[in-house]
Design a protein that fits this description.
The chain is mainly β. The chain is built from one helix and 36 strands. The strands form ten sheets. The protein has a four-stranded antiparallel beta sheet, with no helix packed on it. The chain has a four-stranded antiparallel beta sheet with strand order 2-3-6-7, with no helix packed on it. A four-stranded antiparallel beta sheet has the order 8-9-10-11, with no helix packed on it. The longest helix has 15 residues. The radius of gyration is 21 Å and the shape is globular. About 35% of the residues are buried.
Length: about 400
């Protein structure tokens, strides 16, 4: 009997890793709603040393030009005061042109905006929160549109890969905040874009997922790499279970890395397929191996943040009954204690999410926008705002 019971438990455990099963133990409580100073969508969010949140750039209000709806890039920035639950103006970019494809908060309190989104994609700026001003700083040696960044333990910034003219890049560079200059470092063994990077407790940087393209073929990566900042070299580590790009990942409080959802893309010219991924995996930094955790039944993972030490909040879109993608929002929380996903009812105060920033053990700041009318035919008008939410466990 004991052997039979053991076999049944093993089968049930395997099924738990194959079929998403959600509890509904959690809900959201709205703490405050605040209108942003400027209408913006998709800004980069950085937490400053005093706990306030800097919203950098994004897209401004749409303009109807030559029969096309064009969202201009927003050069202004603003700061969210967590205590006052309100936004205020701060300095705009030093140069009124384009946008930046990566923004990083530095250890000295400043903020680095990397790679202006105009050729040659090399210009950078630094924000001083004391002065509330941006200034032009050292330009990269090579442009890295769509590159991924990591803040190293010594305070420097690592930039890797990216893509240009439909081809992915392998070159990497490091920024020194003290010198305000870039220097080349070891290139990736292959060209890479769309990946994620995480600083491990060892000081190494984990690179996971992403895709490669030579202009004709587009293939998602399964290979993972480790960067050693002391030697400035790359080496292979354990691969993820499936090829994935357009996914989300979070560094947990114990130093491990959680990877959720995404898609597997294989394109050869205009022919190919994209498969959405339900699986989730956990990288154990101690053993340098991946293990599977319960999956998520969704199509599209847009944001994921760590709340305190216990919860991972994920926002994406639902999967229809026939397995196709929908635009219906899906909110999930992963409980690291019970190792289970729980669906959360969509907050009524949130529309079209464009950013998320954790504020504490159970609170998160969500940026979004909502339609408020139409200026003319096919000319919708939006307003952007932020919502502070508290995750509440039902009893």
């Amino acid at each position: 009997r004991s052997s039979t019971a053991t076999a049944v438990l093993s089968i049930l455990s395997l099924l738990a890793l194959c079929e998403p099963s959600y509890g509904r133990r959690f809900t959201f409580e709205t703490i405050s709603i605040a209108k942003t100073v400027r209408n913006r969508f998709g800004p980069s969010l950085v937490k400053l040393a005093d706990g306030s949140i800097l919203a950098v750039g994004g897209y401004g209000a749409e303009k109807w030009e030559d029969g096309h709806l064009t969202p201009p890039f927003e050069r202004s920035c603003e700061i969210y005061d967590v205590g006052k639950h309100s936004w205020r103006k701060t300095g705009s970019f030093a140069v009124d042109q384009g946008y930046f494809y990566a923004v990083v908060g530095l250890c000295d309190g400043r903020v680095l905006a990397i790679g202006r989104g105009e050729p040659p994609f090399r210009e950078c700026e630094l924000y001083d929160p004391v002065l509330g001003q941006w200034k032009v700083t050292g330009a990269m040696r090579d442009g890295h549109p769509g590159a991924t960044t990591a803040l190293l333990s010594n305070g420097e910034v690592l930039v890797t890969g990216g893509h240009r003219d439909k081809e992915t890049l392998a070159s990497c560079e490091i920024f020194s905040p003290a010198k305000e200059k870039w220097r080349p470092t070891a290139s990736l063994p292959w060209s890479w874009s769309g990946h994620k990077m995480h600083l491990l407790t060892s000081g190494e940087v984990l690179l996971v997922g992403g895709w490669a393209s030579d202009g004709k073929r587009h293939v998602a990566w399964k290979t993972c790499l480790l960067f050693d900042p002391a030697r400035e070299e790359w080496r292979a580590t354990g691969d993820v279970g499936v090829r994935r790009d357009h996914f989300q990942s979070v560094t947990l409080s114990d130093g491990n890395i959680l990877v959720a959802g995404g898609q597997t893309t294989r394109l050869y010219g205009d022919v190919g397929e994209t498969t959405f991924i339900d699986t989730c995996e956990l990288y154990e930094a101690g053993t340098r191996r991946w293990r599977q955790i319960p999956p998520v039944a969704h199509h599209g993972t847009r944001f994921a943040v760590l709340l305190g030490k216990r919860f991972v909040l994920l926002q994406g879109t639902k999967k229809s009954t026939d397995g196709k993608r929908t635009n219906l929002p899906l909110w999930l929380v992963y409980d690291l204690v019970s190792r289970s996903w729980h669906e959360i009812p969509r907050p009524e105060s949130v529309w079209q999410v464009s950013g998320m920033m954790p504020l504490g053990e159970d609170r998160v700041l969500v940026l979004g926008r909502r339609k408020i009318g139409e200026k003319g035919r096919f000319q919708p008008q939006y307003e952007s705002f932020s919502v502070e939410l508290r995750l509440v466990e039902r009893r």
